[in-house]
Amino acid sequence: MALNLIKRNATTQEFSIFKLEKLLNDVCKGFPLNAQKPLENLDDYLKDNMTTKDLFNALTMNVLSLTSVEEPEWKNVAGRMKMLALYKQASLNRNMPKNTPPYDYAKFLNYAVKNGVYSSVITEKYSEREIAEAAGFINPEFDFVYDYAGANLLLKRYLCEYDDKIVELPQDMFLSIALLIEQNEDKATRMAKVKDTYEKLANRKISLGTPLLMNLRRPNGNLSSCFITAMDDSRESIFYVIDQVSAISKFGGGVGVNISRVRAKGARIKGIKNSSGGVIPWIRILNDTAVAVNQQGKRKGAVTVSLDMWHLDIEDFLELRTENGDQRMKAYDLFPQVIVPDLFMQKVEHNEDWLMVDPHEVRSKYGIELANLWGKEFEKAYNQLYLEASFGKLELYKFYPAKELLKKVMRSQIETGMPYIAFKDTLNKYNPNKHDGVIVGTNLCTESHSNVRPSHINEDTLSNGKVVRTAEEGLVHVCNLVSINLANIDSDEELQSVCETSVRLLDNAIDFTRVPVLEGQQHNQRYRTIGVGAMGLADMLAKNNIPYIMSANYVDELFEKIALYCIRASIDLAKAKGTFGAYDGSDWSRGIILGHDQIWFNKNAKQTAGWNAVFADLQKYGIRNSQITAIAPNTSSSLIQGCSASVLPVYSKFFVETHGKGSIPNCPPYIRDKFWFYQENRNINQEVVVDVMSHINKWIDTGISIELMYNLNRNIRALDIYNTIMSAWKKDIKTLYYTRTIQKDGSSLEKSECVSCAG
Q1: Domain that holds residue 644
Q2: Full-prediction pTM beyond 0.70?
């Protein structure tokens, strides 16, 4: 019996199996698959008078369902079909005539600028001849490398819309980003750099952080992924920071807030005892702000709040996200982070008591701002306070067994995945700008950090009938992120080239980004902080037949090269454009790289000739960026890249992502041939993971977003978690991000991801 299909123009046509066969032959080309297999159950979804669109979508999902470890390529076939559907959809939405080639970039650019989809910068900065030349760079074949999960995410989150309809195609996006990133380069070489950047983005060698990928071509978009600020102990400062958080969240940034300066519960206010409600009420206001001011209507704000372990409110802080206890003391939409000094870990190790104090009392009586101290200075101040408390000279304090306090941290991690842990002394020991301030906390995903200080808010004044508020400008950490897709890197020469491009494009972005807060602009000019990271490490290891648990030496050499290439690239930029503002007095200016002098490199590095050249040129030219490398979690963007996330082992060799519209099966890209070389994180001793991270961390000047995973079905003990944390501290790991657990019923404690850091 003949079946009819309803076309997009509402006319009908008779169903033809031959058209489907041809389509499947085309989209399966190059894959070792039986192209007719998706037609075996055609009757299950073929209906009379169904639309051609519905048939195509049903066939796509049927193709996707065939994905398995034995035949993983079906997810790529489904991705090709998703892109074909996008071509039709976008053609209609932008009124492209039928049978017109999908990419007429110049025409689309004019359309996008005219309708406010794009900013006008490209047409202002580039001539018609240059735009025509750039249009020739586009390779539509790059659209058909995505698997279904990657293509679906690209469409849902990143491609530009007009009148709520997608009008942008992927290569429009990548070429426009390349043009904008290179807009201020010398015109003699600019188009060559545009082509270089476009090809590395489109060919999935480089993955941009979400703000860059989402906002760069849009009018007035924020380009920075990470922000960190700090509160002073005053009502004016607290609400000033809350306003900063709202501004950052509005433009899609994730933000960290250090709250350690704020007085504890029961502290004096204007000399009156027991007046302060402590940090929790202010944290709850931050929580509500994060919910109220969402990321451009797409997602609630993403905020991590950090508190030092010596703060008297630390016990309440550790219960912020737990289900038990007083609900008035909870903040379920924030991500708590504890700032841990070496002295605390030493007292844990020696089973000694830990002193917790009120920062306001310490500041008032002794003139000590504990939040600004680390290392020997902190130890000296702490020991003084310990004696004072022992003799009853402090009004507010508490002694508590250090090991028991760490156990509270661990219990909260198992229950909620948090708090994150930042080892303050390690952060600052490797801080290249320790001459200019202190690191008090980290960003939302814990891989990015630098000097932060709160703005001092002056009293309001009246001037000509106006209320005037001024502030002594502080510093808000700002960082832009990219990740190198190691799964798609095939040689050292290519790795070096990708590193050079990554550093250049991030440094360029600093010069034309619109930072939501002025203190962030000050930070950009002072430090020019960037974060070149990596993803797809598990895939690279599998390609090279290296099990993750045996990868320490390999990753040590790999990330040494990445460090060398990125630092070299930043020095070359300094030679042409100058150093970062606070260069004088920094570790860089004193011949210290990654916390070490040249002698250390001659003893411990493999690339000694390269490092010796770097040290020589560093002395001559300085360096453009104060911090250069940082490894983000990139859980979402790795889907677009079609590789494993970050530098961790894969969670599973095969998994199904469930959402409202169905299920998406997925697996690593080389699973068919390299099955046994993909090791699952849930089955690996996390001390081994920490050891591998320590070999990477050695070459990363900022941090790594390290997610730990404990499979409770494998008889994990509290001692195992304790040993992992202690091992991380002793191996100079700077931070520990999310703690993920697999429960004995098979359920998994899932993390809430910051979209801004996802890239």
Answers
A1: 478-704
A2: yes
